[in-house]
């Protein structure tokens, strides 16, 4: 079959014959990125909270020893997965698990696992920083009214920390949408893998990856705008007047009273 000689004609040919394959690849990319980011956030939240558990000299020696060991293991996990490329992690986990432990993972399951634990390592440091960014006076105030460490984290610290780290959560999602392309090394059929197959069919790489680039751009821009909208919603209203049943206590001066000329004043 003769290929069209013009750029637009080759683009149309690719979309007509392989548009479905590219869309399925993009669907797998989004599925892996979204689910793995959510799971990674949960992992990072747990690891970040454990890393910030205070340990004092007055604490039981067993508690101090256990926490030291747990924090050491979690620190090693964070440093290893933040300090090595995801592509290397994918090959190490996927092929290593089969070779050493005789565990033959499904490609998609391996993709979810790899991206989740990689995201969890980055989110752990983000959560830890978010928790430490909250003023210590709030923790002291919560403990002063009898809250335990768990209650303080759940009701006082975490709600503020999560709002502070929302931009980083969104950033991790955008990164995961793009970085799923490295999973092609373990034959996960995501957008980049599908694009390579399409390009190899006609040997027209420039047109194929032009389409691929536009598809990645559409996905990342859409989720960037969506997450920015969520951030604005989390900010709440700009007007922070007290909500009270007593109009005399309204900070905006809602109470009207007679003026000198029989009118009303605010």
From TrEMBL:
GO molecular function: transmembrane transporter activity
Keywords, ordered alphabetically: Amino-acid transport, Cell membrane, Membrane, Transmembrane, Transmembrane helix, Transport
One family name in Pfam for this protein: BPD_transp_1
Membrane topology value: Multi-pass membrane protein
Main location: membrane
Localization per Swiss-Prot or TrEMBL: Cell membrane
Record PROSITE patterns: ABC_TM1 (PS50928)
Domain of life: Bacteria
Family: Belongs to the binding-protein-dependent transport system permease family. HisMQ subfamily.
Protein name: Putative lysine transport system permease protein
């Amino acid at each position: 079959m003769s290929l069209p000689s013009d750029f637009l004609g080759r683009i149309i040919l690719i979309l007509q014959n392989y548009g479905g394959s590219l869309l399925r690849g993009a669907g797998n990319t989004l599925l892996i990125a979204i689910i793995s980011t959510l799971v990674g956030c949960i992992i990072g939240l747990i690891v970040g909270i454990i890393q910030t558990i205070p340990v004092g000299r007055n604490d039981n020696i067993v508690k101090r020893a256990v926490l030291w060991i747990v924090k050491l293991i979690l620190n090693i996990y964070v440093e290893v997965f933040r300090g090595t490329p995801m592509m290397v992690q994918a090959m190490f986990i996927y092929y290593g698990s089969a070779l050493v432990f005789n565990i033959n993972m499904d490609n998609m399951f391996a993709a979810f696992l790899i991206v989740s634990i990689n995201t969890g390592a980055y989110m752990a440091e983000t959560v830890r920083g978010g928790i430490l960014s909250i003023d210590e006076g709030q923790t002291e105030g919560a403990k002063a009214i009898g809250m335990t460490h768990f209650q303080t984290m759940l009701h006082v610290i975490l709600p503020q920390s999560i709002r502070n780290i929302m931009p980083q959560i969104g950033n991790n999602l955008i990164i995961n949408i793009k970085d799923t392309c490295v999973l092609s090394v373990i034959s996960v059929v995501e957008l980049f893998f599908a694009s390579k197959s399409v390009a190899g069919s006609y040997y027209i790489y420039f047109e194929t990856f032009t389409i691929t680039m536009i598809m990645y751009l559409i996905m990342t821009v859409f989720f960037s705008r969506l997450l920015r909208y969520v951030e604005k919603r989390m900010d709440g209203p700009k007007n922070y007047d007290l909500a009270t049943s007593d109009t005399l206590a309204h900070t905006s001066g809602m109470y009207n009273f007679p003026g000198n000329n029989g009118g009303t004043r605010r």
